[in-house]
Write a structure and sequence with these properties.
Blueprint (H helix, E strand, L loop, with lengths): L2 H9 L2 H9 L6 E9 L10 E5 L10 H13 L4 E4 L12 H8 L8 E3 L9 H8 L3 E2 L3 E7 L2 E8 L6 H8 L5 E6 L5 H6 L4 E4 L8 E2 L3 E2 L10 E5 L2 E5 L17 E9 L2
Parallel strand pairs: 1-14, 2-3, 3-4, 4-5, 7-8, 8-9, 9-13
Antiparallel strand pairs: 2-14, 6-7, 10-11, 12-13
Length: about 260
C-alpha cells in the first residue's frame, strides 16, 4: 500500500524523509470528530469514544509510541474505547504480548472493544487482548445498555467482506448500531445494510501525504482519513498510531481520535 507513497516521499527530498522519520511519526495528536448516526438513541447523543488503531508495535514502532497513545486516550476520559486492529506487523509473535501489556491500562465506563486487522493472526492476538479484559469481536456483536438504552457494537474480521456475511453478524441487532471494520472499504456493505456508524483504520491516512499530490498510498480507499458518508451510513477513518514498511510519516501525524456521537438529521 505504501510503496508508491515511499517513492513519492523520496522524490520530495531527503530532508522531508528525515523529518518524517525523526519527528512527525512520533507527533501524536488527539483529534476530535463528530460521527452522525442515523437512528441514534437520544441518550447516546454526546457519547464519547476514544479510537486507537494501527499500532503496529514492531522494531519500527517503539513501546513509547504505544504508551503515548494509551495515556492520551485515558486523559481524555472517554465513555468507551475502541481498538481498530493491526496491533503488530505481519503477526510478529515477539510483539504480541508486549503490545497487549502496553494496552492493559485502558479502561472506560462502557468497556473496551477490539477488532483484528490484516496484520493480526486469529489466535495469539485475540487471546492476548482477551486476557487483558478487552472484548475482541471476530464477526461478533456485543449488546450493552448505555445510559438506559440498547447499543449494539459489532466487529468483523478483515477478511469478512461479503454483504451476506456482515448481515449475519448484524442479524437481530436493535437500538444504536456501531460497526467496527478495520478496512474502510466495508463502507459499501455497511451502507447496503443501513448501518448507522462505522469506525475504521487500515489506511494510516496514507502515511505519506504530499502537497499537491495527496495520499498516494490510500487512493484505493473511500477516504484516506476523516469522516465520509454514504446514504444513511457515516464512517470515520483514523490515521492510526504506527507505521508500516517504512518508519516515516509526512503530512500525516499519528492520532488518537475522540469520536462524539450525534444524531444524523
Amino acid at each position: 500500500m505504501l510503496r508508491g507513497g515511499l517513492a513519492a516521499a523520496l522524490g520530495a527530498g531527503t530532508g522531508a524523509g528525515i523529518y518524517g522519520a525523526a519527528y512527525e511519526r512520533h507527533r501524536l495528536e488527539l483529534t476530535s470528530a463528530v460521527l452522525p448516526i442515523s437512528g441514534l438513541a437520544p441518550s447516546h447523543v454526546g457519547l464519547r469514544i476514544a479510537f486507537i488503531t494501527d499500532l503496529h508495535h514492531s522494531a519500527l514502532v517503539a513501546a513509547d509510541d504505544i504508551a503515548a497513545a494509551v495515556s492520551t486516550a485515558l486523559a481524555a476520559a472517554p465513555d468507551m474505547i475502541v481498538l481498530g486492529g493491526d496491533y503488530v506487523t505481519r503477526a510478529d509473535a515477539a510483539y504480541i504480548e508486549p503490545v497487549a501489556d502496553l494496552l492493559t491500562p485502558l479502561h472506560a465506563p462502557h468497556g473496551v472493544f477490539a477488532v483484528l486487522g490484516n496484520h493480526d493472526d486469529d489466535r495469539q492476538v485475540p487471546q492476548a487482548l482477551a486476557r487483558k479484559g478487552f472484548a475482541v469481536l471476530r464477526d461478533q456483536r456485543s449488546r450493552l445498555v448505555v445510559r438506559g438504552e440498547v447499543m449494539e457494537v459489532a466487529g468483523i474480521r478483515f477478511w469478512t467482506k461479503r454483504t451476506i456475511d456482515i448481515a449475519r453478524v448484524l442479524s437481530g441487532a436493535s437500538g444504536t448500531v456501531l460497526l467496527l471494520a478495520h478496512d474502510p472499504r466495508r463502507l459499501l456493505e455497511a451502507s447496503a445494510l443501513d448501518v448507522g456508524g462505522v469506525l475504521s483504520g487500515h489506511t494510516h491516512g496514507g502515511q505519506i501525504v504530499l502537497p499537491g499530490v495527496g495520499a498516494l498510498a490510500a487512493r484505493r480507499f473511500p477516504i484516506p482519513s476523516g469522516l465520509i458518508e454514504r446514504e444513511n451510513t457515516s464512517m470515520f477513518v483514523s490515521r492510526g498510531v504506527g507505521t508500516v514498511y517504512v518508519p516515516i510519516r509526512i503530512g500525516c501525524p499519528p492520532e488518537v481520535a475522540m469520536i462524539t456521537l450525534t444524531s444524523r438529521t
